Protein 1
Amino acid sequence: MEETEVELRSPQDPLSQMEAMMEFQKTGKRERKKINTKHILFIMSGAFNGLEEIIKKRLNRQGIGFGAEVKSKDEKTEYLRMVKAEDLIQYGFESEFIGRLPVITVFENLEVEDLYHILRNPKSPIINSKKKDFKAYGIDLQFEDEALRLIAENAFKERTGARGLASAVERVLLRFEHVLPSTDIRHLVVTASMVKDPEGELEKILQNPHDPQREARFRELMAEEERSLEGPIREKCVEFHERYGLTFSPQRISLITRRIVEERKDLDSVIDEVLAIYHTARSFEQEFSSRNEVKLSFSEEAIDCLVEKVWKEEDKLNAEDFLKQAFQNYEHGLKLINKRTGIREFIIPAAGIQDPENYLSELIRESYKD
C-alpha cells in the first residue's frame, strides 16, 4: 500500500495467463503490465462486527453479570470511537497491514434527516433508478417532498442505514409498477397518501386516471426539478465552457435540464448529445462556406433550436440530414442576395432553423426592397 509497482496479471490466475498467451500470439511480445500505487487512495470499510467487545475488554468496562454484552447501537459507536491499532490486530489484522492505514474513523448512525437528504439529492441513485424503471414503461415519475420524508422515516425504522431506503421505496411503488404499464397513465406523482396507503391510492388513480389536479401537480414538480438542476449547472458555467468549449447560456441550460428530467439521462451524456449536434452544425458551416463565395454561420440560438428539433424527432431525424435538406436552396439564394447587396456573411438565427425556406424567402425579399 506504499508506493510500489504491482503486476496487473497474476501468475496464478488462468484467465490472466490466457490473455497473456493471446497477446503473445498477436504481437510476439510478452509484456508485463504494471501499475504504480503512488497516487491511489486505499479505503477499507466494513461493519467490523464484534470489534466493540474487544475494545470494551481492553478498557475493562465489562457489564454487570456474567456474559454481559454491548447491546445498543449508540453504545457500540461510543466504544468504536476509542479503537486502537492493538484492537484491530486482536480482531485479526496483520500488524504490518494496520501500520499502513494511518487514518481510522467511525461513521455516525444515519438519522431520519440524513436519509431524507439522500433521497432529496438530485443525484440520488435510489430515486433516479426508480424514475428510470418507470420511464422504461413510458411513465414519468415525480416525488412530493412530504412523501420522501415519510419514506425516510420508514427506512429509519428498519435500522439498516441507507440500505433500507431502496426497500422502503420499493414497498410503495411495487404494485404501481406492476399495474400502471397496462394502462394509458403516463404521469405519476408519489404523494404522502401513497406512502401511507399504496393499495388505496392505486385504486383511486385507476378510477380517475386523468385527474386534472394530479396532472397539474406533476407539472409543478417537473418544473421544480428542472430549477433545482439549473442552479448547479449555472455555478459551473465557466468550468463547463473550458472543458467542452460550449457557451452555456440560460436558454441552453434550460434545454439541457429539460432533457435530463424528461428522458432521465445524466448531465454528461446530455452535454455529449449537444456537443455532437454543435459540431455537426459547425462542420456544415465550413463545408458550405468552402463551396461558395458567401459565408454561412449559425447563431448560438439557432444551434439550440436545432438541438431541440432533433430531440423532438430523434427517431426519424438527425442533424446532418436536416441541414443538408433544409439548406439546399441557400447556395443559390445567398449568391443572389450577394450580387444585389454585396453582403458576403450571413448569420442564420433561430427563425432560419424553425422554417428555413420561409426565412430565405424573407431575406431575398428584403434584398429586393433595398
Protein 2
Amino acid sequence: MTSEISVRPYTPADAESWDSFVDSAMNGTMFHKQAFLAYHAPDRFAFHHLIFELSGTIVAVLPGGLTENGTKFWSPVGASYGSFVTNDVSYEMSQNIVDAFLEYGRGQQWTDAYIIPPPVVYAGEFNQHIEYAMLYRKFGFELHYISHAIDLKHGADYLRHFDKTARKTVRKVRREQLIRIEESEDYDTFYDILLENKSKHNATPTHSREDLEKLRQLTPQHLKLFLVYYGDIAIGGSLLFLCNNRVVLCFYNMLRYEYEHLKPIYLIMDETVRWATENNYAWVDIGVSQVPTAEDPMTPALSLIKFKERFNSRGLLRTTYHYRFADES
C-alpha cells in the first residue's frame, strides 16, 4: 500500500489546504501551520515540508527542514512541535505513511531524520499509531525532555486541587489586591520584562520583538497576553499560545524579580487556569523543565518541577525520535 501513498514537497500554493488539514486533523497544532511558520524570514531555515496523499487526498502533512547541507531532516524546524499530522487513522495507514516517508528520505539521500511530536494530550484522540510505527521501523530515541501540564478536568473547582501553598498564596494575592492581572495588547512592555528576565539567566528569548509582532499579525487567534500590574507598573506577564482547541501553552511566564515578593507568578498561574477552563480547553501546558547549562541536556530542573507541581501538573514526555538511514546499508 505504501506505493499508493505519494509524498511531495509543500509549495506556497498548498498553504490554504495545508492549514485547513491541520485545523481539522486529530493532532494538529499552531506549530504545524504555515501561517505560524511564515513568521520566519525566508532565508532563516531550509524548510522542506512534506505532503502525503492517497488518491489525490491529503492523509498527512509533515512540517520540517534540512540541516547539514541537506543531509539531515528535522521536524520541526523553527517551532516547538512537529511530526506527522493525521486524522484518527488506522495502524496500517500510519505504518504506510511512515514507510512512505522513509522511502522518500532514501531517495533524497538523507543520513538522519529527527521527529518531535507534541505530547499525547495535544491530540483530540489518544492514538499513538504513528509513534509505534516509527519504533517498529527502528526509529530510536534521541532525547526525552520532561514537560508538565495541568489537567482541567476539575473545572471551576481547579483551585482546590492546587497544593496547600499555592491555594493559600493565590487566595492571599486575590484578597489583598495589591496586584492585578489583565488581558493586554502591550507586547512592547511585555517584551521589556522578557528581556530583563532572560538577561538574569544569561539567556535570550526564543523570539525577537519583531518575531512576536509578526506572529500577532499572522496568527492573532493563537496568542493571548496577560500582564500583572502593581499600581501602574507592569511587573510580570504571560504570553499564552493557544495551540489548538485542547491545549493552552504558557510559552513565556515572566516577572520583574524586584517584585517577586508580591507573588505575580501565582496570580498568573491562577488566571491562566481559570481562563483556559472557562474557555473549554482540556490542558494547560507549562513547558519543559531542564537545566540549560548542564552537560546532560536531559538534566531536570528539580526546583522548577517542584514549583510546577504546586498547580496539580503532571509530567509529560517530549521525545525526539531519530532514524539513521546510514544504518540500513
Protein 3
Amino acid sequence: MAKPKYITSIAQLDGLDEREKSRLKAVTEKFVFRTNEYYMSLVDWSDPNDPIRKLVVPDESELEEWGRLDASHEVDYTVVPGLEHKYASTALLLVNDVCGAYCRFCFRKRLFMNDNDEVVKDVSEGLEYIREHPEISNVLLTGGDPLIMCTSKLEKIIAQLREIDHVRIIRIGTKMPAFNPMRITEDPSLLEMISRYSTAERRIYIMAHFNHPVELTDVAVEGLSLLQSAGAIVVNQTPMIAGINDDPDVLSELFNKLSYIGVAPYYVFQCRPTLGNRKYSIPVERSYEIFEQARMNSSGLAKRARLVMSHSTGKIEVVGMTETHIFLKYLRAQQDEDSSRFQVFERNPEAYWFDDYEDVVQVFDMETELYTGTS
C-alpha cells in the first residue's frame, strides 16, 4: 500500500460541499487541520454521524468559548523547555509539535498554535534534566506524535535515553497506528530500532490511541502486530468523546477487539475541558455509566481499562457511584498528601471535570487510615 498523502486544507476534502468548506474556514484559522487520504478513506460521507469524520473534520461548535487551552495546567510542570515533570518517577518529553492528523478534541491544541513555545526542536536540555534526576524511571515521548518523525531522528533520542541507567521504561505516545499504519508496515528500520532498544528488562511501550473500532483495519492490526513482534508492549488509551465512542456497544467492541489482538485497554480519559471541546465533552457521571456498561459486555482481559481524569493535581480515577454519591481516587498525585487519596462527593450530573465537584462527604487519609468529612 502506498504511503498516504497528507491533506492540510479543508478545500481538499471531496466529501464536503463548497458551502461547508466555506463555513469551516474560520475554525481552521483558529485550530489547525490536518489528515491524510488513508484515514479519510475510512469515512462514510453519506453518514453525517460518521465517527471518523467527527474525529478530524472541523465543526463550527469549536468556536464556542468553553474551556481553557491548558485545562490540566501542564505548563506549570514544565521544568525545562520541552520537558514536563509532574510525577516523581515519570517525565514527559515533548519531542515535536506535529501529528499525523489532528483530533478535533485535542487536549494539547495549544501546542499547534503559532505562539507556542513549549515544544523545542533540541531536546538536549530535557535529556540532561532526566540524567540528573535518578527518581525518573519512566519517560514518555509525546508532543505532537513521535512517530511522525523519521526513524533516524527518533532513534537518536531513544538511544540517549537508553544510556541513562535509571530510565527503565520508554513510552511512545502515538496515534500513527490508527492515522497512518503504513508508517509501521513500510519502515523496517522502525521495527529494527524498537527491537534494538526494547529489551527484556527495559521495555519500550507503545501507547496507542484507537478511539473507535472502525480504526482497527487490517493494515492497522498488522502494524500493531509488527510492533509487538519487534518487542514493544502495546497498550491503548482513548478519551471518551461525544458522538464517537460514548456508546456502550461501541466502547465494548473497541475493548474486545483490542483484547483479541493482544493490546491491553489501558485508560479511558474523561474529555479535558479544553478550549473548543464543549461539543465533544460528556458529564463525568454519564461517562462512568457508559464505561461500566461497556465493561459489562467485555471479557476480563478486555475490561482492564480505567476511567480517569488527567487533572492538574493528578490522575484521578472514577471508581464508583451510587444514587447519591460518586467515588474518586488519585492513581497518581502531584502532591504526596494526595497519593491514593479516596474521596466521596455528592453527585453532580452537570460536572464535566473534577473541579465541578464541591460537596466532599468523606476523604480517606492514607497516613492516618481514617476517614474525615461531613459524614
Protein 4
Amino acid sequence: MRGGNLLVRNGLIVTSEAMFKADVKVVDGKIVSIGEGLSNEGVDEVIDAKGMLVLPGVVDEHVHMREPGLEFKDDFTHGTKAAALGGVTTVIEQPNTLPPVEDSNTLLAKAKLLEGKAFVDFALYGVLYDSNVHNFEDMISSGAVGFKVFLGPTTGNIPPPSTGSLYHILSLSAKHNVTIAFHAEDNDLVNYFTNKVRSEGRVDAKAHEDARPPICEELAVIKLATIAKRTGGHAHILHLSSKEAVEVIKEGKVRGVKLTGETCPHYLLLSNEDYVKYGTLMKVNPPIRGLTHQQALWEGIKEGVIETIGSDHAPHTVEEKKKSVWEASSGFIGVQTLLPLTLDAALKGKLQLTLLPKLLSENPAKLFKLWPRKGVINVGSDGDLVIVDPNEEFTITQEWLISKNPVTPFIGWKVRGRIKHTILRGVPIVRDGILQNVSQGSWLKAIF
C-alpha cells in the first residue's frame, strides 16, 4: 500500500548505534532524510517530538494471533490493533493455527485472509515436521520468512520432528540462508517429568515449572547446537527461560555455530516467586523460573548472547487460564506490552536504551530477512517509527489492552514511557495514544 508523507521534528532519535537530536522526513512511506532543520515541503503533516524519544517501529518476531481456526481466543484484527498501540509496526505470525501453515497453499490462504484485517505489517512463518519437510522450498518461494519447529508439546499439538528430520531441516537452512525458529524443550523429558510430578498429586501452580525443568530446554538446545554445527544451519531458540540454555548458546557462538536466542519480558520481569500471586495466569511454556535464571537472561542480553526479545503473544480465554494447573492453557497476551515493559526496564537502568532498537527491531528484521526495509531508522527504509514520552508514567489496565481476552499478569503494573505516536510507512496509526481507524497493514515477504 502507498505510504504517507510526514515530518517528525525535534525528537531524540534512538538507534542501535547512538542517540542524537534530528528530524525524520518520510515521503511515500520511505525515509528520505534524517537531520536537523529539515524542510516540511512535500509533507502532509508535521509531528513535534520535542522532549520525546523516536525509535524504529518494533518488529515482534513471535506472535500467535490465533487466526484462522482459533478466533474464540482472539483474532488478527484485535492482535494488530494491540500491536499498533504497543509501538509494534511489524509482526511475524506463528504457524500453529488451524489449519497449520504447512505448505504453500495454506501459507497463501492465510496471507490473503489476514491482509484485509491488518493494522500493522505482517510476515508469516511456515511450520515443519517429519511429513512436510519436502515443502520447505515451496513455502520460501511463496513468501515464508522462516520456519517454526516445535520440539515439545504446545498449542495445536504439532508433532516434534525426528532427529533425522532436524538434520534435513537445518541442512536446508544452510542451503537457502533461512532462519529456523525453535520451541526448544525435549518432548520425552517433558512427558517424563510431567508424569512424575502429576503422580505426586501436586496441583500447585509451581508444579508446572517442575514438570518442565531446565534440563528439558538445555538438552534440546544442545541437540540443535550439535546439528547446526554440522550442517551450517541457523537455529534461533525462542523464549529462552534458563541459565543452562543461555550457556549452551554462548558456547556455541564461541565455536562459530549459527545459534541465536530470544527471550520474553515475562522471563525477565517475573520469577517463580510470583506463582503465589498470579497462579496459572502466568503459566507459559517453557515455564517462568527462579531469580538465578532471570539474572542469567539479563546477562545474556548484555553480552549479546540473546539477540532478540519477542512477546510470545499467545491469547487464551479467561476460562482456559482459570483451570487447574494441569488443564490451564499456557501463554497470555503480550504484543501490546512488549515495548512498554522493556522500555520501562531501560529507562530504569536495567539495560542500555540503545539496546532496544537492536533487540526489538533491527535483529528480528535481520534474522527474518526484512532488513533494511524494516527495523531501522535509515534513509531508504520504511517510515516505521514509534514516538515515546520518556517522562510520562502510565498503568497497564484491562481497559487499555485490546484483546477478546485481556488476560496478563502485567495488568496493574506502572511503567515509565508512554507511547504517543505509532507511525507505519509514514502514516500515524496511533496518534496521541489513540488508535486511528487505519487498517493499512501489508503482507511482507523476505528480502533474500
